[in-house]
Specification:
- The structure is a single chain.
- The protein is α/β, with parallel strands linked by helices and 286 residues long.
- It contains eleven helices and nine strands.
- Strands 1, 2, 3, 4, 5, 6, 7, 8 and 9 form a nine-stranded mixed beta sheet that branches.
- β6 and β7 form a beta hairpin.
Length: 286
């Protein structure tokens, strides 16, 4: 029996994620409903990504944009968004896995909540090497608290969990010069422009945690750049001390996520709490 399709364009940018692509695509194919199109922008990959994508050439919903050279995540996402033709755009990363009801739940949410332009969800973090679940994120659900997070220079929504009304997404572009802070930048600009946000409390994505990911290997310059964007967008002034404290928190929390040794794991969590106790408590007590 054929599955129902919903008016959603899934957009993903791929660079050398060939070993994860099958799991990613199958998680979409096995969803409770299908998107009208799955757009994957292959950003000049040098691994077997194109061979994997060729294996799915018979998949009716799949559209592949091929960059001959690596142009960067932001340019790849912009190309996918430009091609998207559905009512909603669902962002996803090709090293993650969608829970089977994600597309349907977010589509239904936006259909029923006309005032909301961007909806995200929590994620289940899982370890790349062991495939074991680590923890569930705890993002704010309502617009006002999401806005507060962005005004503080923090993330109010997890980028690869969002579904956005297409007419809103196409008004904003990712900026390659802001790579590594591009997710904060674009969604801070969208929410500052007056668009309404929400998060679904339950995790709708399995988000892969591996030692090579950009988010795990975060540098102080990335935090500094993020706060510079915050100051520019919201007309604030962030002190160097706040940036250092936030960096200490986020660096140790990321190490907590990937650590395998239980003693070391909770040592990192304790260090994160020293830098930002309120944030750690909020993450622990969902």
């Amino acid at each position: 029996m054929a599955k129902n399709k919903v008016d959603v364009s899934v957009v993903a940018a791929n660079y050398n994620n060939g070993r994860y692509l099958k799991d990613f695509i199958y998680s979409i194919v096995n969803s409770t409903v299908l998107p009208s199109e799955l757009i994957i922008v292959n950003d000049g990959s040098t691994d077997n990504s194109l061979e994997i994508l060729d294996e799915f050439s018979g998949l009716e919903i799949l559209k592949v944009i091929k960059f001959e050279e690596n142009r960067g995540l932001c340019e790849a996402l912009n190309a996918g968004i430009e091609l998207a033709s559905a009512k909603y755009i669902l962002r996803a990363d090709p090293d993650d896995i969608l829970f089977k009801h994600r597309i349907e739940k977010q589509f239904t949410f936006l259909e029923e909540n006309k005032e909301i332009d961007v909806v995200g969800s929590n994620v289940m973090y899982f370890h790349d090497n062991t495939n074991k679940d680590i923890s569930v994120s705890n993002f704010p659900e309502d617009h006002n608290n999401i806005l507060k997070a962005y005004r503080k220079g923090e993330h109010g929504i997890q980028q690869p969990t969002v579904m956005v009304r297409t007419h809103v997404m196409k008004k904003f572009r990712y900026i390659q010069e802001n790579f590594k802070s591009e997710d904060y930048d674009i969604f801070a600009r969208i929410i500052h422009a007056g668009h309404k946000f929400a998060n679904i409390k339950e995790p709708l994505n399995r988000m892969r945690v591996h030692t090579n990911s950009v988010s795990i290997n975060i540098k102080y310059d990335t935090i500094k750049h993020t706060f510079a964007l915050r100051d520019q967008i919201f007309n604030t002034q962030t002190s160097p001390l706040k940036m250092r404290l936030y960096y200490g928190y986020i660096l140790n929390y990321k190490k907590y996520l990937i650590a395998k040794n239980p003693l070391r794991k909770y040592l990192y969590l304790g260090m994160a709490a020293l830098f930002y106790p309120g944030k750690v408590l909020k993450r622990i007590f969902n």
